[in-house]
């Protein structure tokens, strides 16, 4: 889908994108955006900066670590645990404000300017999507925009976050155990390897395991028992916010469960595309017309692939904290009769709501998961 990101977008473009979003998000819970205005080069440069950050001595990285204050800052591998037990093997740098707060400008000149500018781009793209979403739901174009007016303002009134992610290579090294949690592991700093679309067949050697996954909706078998212990890249979950914009390098590993399906399916790689997936809040707001999408990042089956690192960038778009989320805000009409989803939704409205309250709770107390 092709989008434009001017501050006051042309109504006909908003309408057209709204129609496409309506179909994709209702049927699939996700959509791939192209011509979105954020260049591939800019994304790759952000990953270069992240690689340089990960390469800093750990005592320097410590200066930028996320404090309990808000979600802003660096998160070491092994700190977050989606399923409450298995450590996630990824470095995350969360940006919650455009004020370049506590960014590693001194050890890494250019980091703050580039990443803040990228965060601004993702915010602009989100503002466009919010308008297209409103149009797609037959409500005034500014409806969602007004409820997301504090994104990245730094005033703690909105949880929207740009997150730079690096998943280190998984090296099976029985002699010299890599202890990821303590941070001593071999990193690879390759950039995007391929500029070619890669939509591998939907079946993969994991499928037999996938069938079993259905028993436990969100705790899929993402973990792998390796000589280093049990590991995952990113456990199965749905995002909490309105929607998430996700850019990935060409390493793959992202899998989703489409609405009404129990099977994990690969997303594949379309160079330069940004994936949008619905979060819990949008699902609640729309009475699951736009369902939250379960997803995870698996450790690749093939040893030579998992021995490379993987990069992604996620922008979690959240409403302002004081927003009342009520499905009654939206007209209770079905989406165009030809696109009405007849399949049973796996996740109930009640479950989505419970997850959201868990998220709120996690913001108030200590948390193992913050997207
Ligand atoms: O890295 C990815 O591709 C996905 C990350 C993700 O889903 C999350 O952080 O919520
Ligand atoms: Fe996610």
Automatic annotation (TrEMBL):
Outline the extent of the Fe2OG dioxygenase domain.
208-319
MF terms from GO for this chain are: metal ion binding; oxidoreductase activity
- Give me the stretches of Basic and acidic residues compositional bias: 197-218
Tell me the Gene3D superfamilies matching this sequence.
B-lactam Antibiotic, Isopenicillin N Synthase, Chain
Segments for region (Disordered):
197-223
Keywords tagged on the record = Iron, Metal-binding, Oxidoreductase
Q: Which family does it belong to?
A: Belongs to the iron/ascorbate-dependent oxidoreductase family.
Q: Name the PANTHER family on file.
A: 2-OXOGLUTARATE (2OG) AND FE(II)-DEPENDENT OXYGENASE SUPERFAMILY PROTEIN-RELATED
Q: What is this protein called?
A: (Mediterranean fruit fly) hypothetical protein
UniProt organism field: Ceratitis capitata
